[in-house]
Amino acid sequence: MTDRVINWFKYASPQTFYPLAGKLIPWFWALAALFGIAGLVIGFLIAPTDAQQGEGYRIIFLHVPASWMSMFLYLVMAFWAGIGLAFNIRLSGMMASALAPTGALFAFLSLWTGALWGKPMWGTWWVWDARLTSELILLFLYIGFIALQAAIDDPRRADKAGAILALVGVVNIPIIYFSVKWWNTLHQGASVSLTKAPSMAAMMLWGMLLCALGCWMYSIAVGLMRVRAIMLERERHTDWVRELLAGKE
Amino acid sequence: MHWNSFAEFLAMGNHGLYVWGSVVVMAVLMLAEPMLLMRGRKTLVARLKRQLRAEQAETLANRSASRQSRRNTPQE
């Protein structure tokens, strides 16, 4: 049996991960399109009107997946950054750097769709309430991480500095998640949680979960595309990149 | 199907501006990101290839120059 176990450490080297990632990207794009279209069809064409919010509630199919992704990508980014810091693995630092822009994108989209949802429902684009403010801090953490890494020329040192920032910033994630419970906020409580049955119609829930899955697949596809570019750039003096470049005409 | 007409779908119960404003911005950004990545990759590969060729040309030039200088040194 032991000889059939896949050696996962093999894939920790950029040289073996690069072609593997290249093969996986089209599949994740296909899944992203599939889940995204299914979720949007259910959300925008089939799901019923919300009793309280009318049709405006349909922003939920974009807002919730974007918000979940912005928080989850931060955790994944901090995880890779921490692994890189602890074990000094080249690939982990590259993974963390590859996820940051996509996380920032989703944090921005969460705020944008939230503002467009808040205006008709609360009568304001923005309030300095716990949920909104902590999500804004998340966007600033992503931007800070990207700016810090961009300011340091040596990639190894940039990884280390970024990792410390990312790990310190993790404290913000539970604050975002539990802000609606801990403080009296304008933002509504969670419609879906791990501990109790979701408080929404089945079709709404399906639309939202499928859109969220689509965003997951999108993030993986885009993350793999970006990590491949980072690999080429950082490993440009190694033999495997030279051979790759020489072979590509 | 939830809607009776396309106009009703577009109106989103008087919340059209907010709903479609969210959809359009999200769609544009989520299309722009992979497109920028693809373009960035193309320019990166071209740049790395150029650097590699320049490096190889330089080593070749160095090698022939050192051969030349060895030939020019008078033998004892």
Describe the protein in words:
The complex is a heterodimer of chains A (249) and B (76). Chain A is mainly α and 249 residues long. Helices cover 74% and strands 0% of the residues of chain A. Chain A has a single domain, classed as Four Helix Bundle (Hemerythrin (Met), subunit A). The N and C termini of chain A lie far apart (42 Å). Chain B has 76 residues and is mainly α. Chain B has one domain. At the A-B interface, helix 1, helix 2, helix 3, helix 7 and helix 8 of A face helix 2 of B.
- CATH level 1 class label of chain A: Mainly Alpha
**Mean pLDDT over all positions of chain A:** 89
- Tally of distinct domains of chain B: 1
Rg of chain B is 31 Å
The proportion of strand residues of chain A reads: under 5%
Determine the fraction of residues in helical runs of chain B and give it as a percent range. over 70%
This entry's quaternary arrangement is: heterodimer
Question: What is the molecular shape of chain B?
Answer: rod-shaped
**Biggest interface between chains:** A-B, 40 and 30 residues
N- and C-termini, Cα separation of chain A: 42 Å
Q: Please state the structural category of chain A.
A: mainly alpha
What is the CATH fold-level name of chain A? Answer: Four Helix Bundle (Hemerythrin (Met), subunit A)
Low-confidence stretches of chain B: none
Order of SSEs of chain B, N→C? HH
